[in-house]
């Protein structure tokens, strides 16, 4: 992980660090701890709130193109919920290889199949939440297609690669009530972020 500040926040977070300490037991291909739990941990550290303030769940994604069944995904989620049963938070586990099978029913627009977990992370609704972490040797590996500047600066900017305006604005409304200190970029005032 390139940013020492981000690594320090994650390591000090009681839930994120507990998941990462046992990540080898996750045992899923191309697995990452992703999205809101990471971003919200950073926002809480920046605003002086408790690490778990506002946290609805912890998301773990993986990529298994050889098994696209909902049953297998549910089995992995049940296994990981048991593994992390001591943590006081809901765990959400998704196989990014099968998202295209249900996405249109859930959100109204279809999408092309992802090529990897990293590809999926690059479509998450904001630049700050388009982030994944996992252990990598003695440090943390980082997947941050848009970098970590928005995340560390408390900027919520839409990632228009896939998300709709309605989904983005719903997230912003929830987050604004919890973290009013953040800078929220309106949907119509931003261009699609460039990947660097």
UniProtKB/TrEMBL annotation:
Keyword Transferase: yes
InterPro entries noted in UniProt: NTP_transf_6
Keyword check for Transferase: yes
Alphabetic keyword roster: Transferase
An MF annotation (GO) of this entry: transferase activity
Pfam families documented for this protein: NTP_transf_6
Protein origin, superkingdom: Bacteria
Protein name: Nucleotidyltransferase family protein
Source organism phylogeny: Bacteria, Pseudomonadati, Pseudomonadota, Alphaproteobacteria, Hyphomicrobiales
């Amino acid at each position: 992980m390139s940013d020492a500040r981000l690594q320090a926040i994650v390591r000090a977070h009681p839930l994120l660090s507990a998941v990462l300490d046992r990540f080898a037991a996750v045992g899923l291909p191309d697995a990452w701890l992703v999205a809101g739990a990471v971003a919200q941990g950073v926002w809480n550290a920046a605003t002086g709130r408790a690490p778990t303030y506002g946290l609805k769940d912890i998301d773990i994604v993986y990529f298994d193109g050889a098994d696209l069944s909902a049953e297998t995904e549910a089995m992995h989620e049940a296994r990981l919920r048991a593994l992390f049963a001591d943590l006081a938070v809901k765990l959400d586990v998704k196989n990014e290889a099968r998202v295209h099978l249900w996405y249109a029913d859930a959100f109204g627009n279809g999408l092309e199949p992802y090529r990897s977990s990293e590809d999926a992370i690059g479509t998450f609704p904001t630049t700050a939440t388009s982030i994944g972490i996992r252990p990598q040797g003695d440090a943390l590996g980082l997947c941050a297609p848009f970098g970590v500047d928005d995340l560390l600066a408390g900027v919520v900017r839409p990632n228009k690669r896939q998300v709709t305006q309605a989904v983005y604005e719903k997230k912003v409304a929830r987050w604004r009530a919890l973290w009013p200190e953040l800078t929220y970029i309106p949907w119509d005032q931003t261009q699609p972020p460039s990947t660097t």
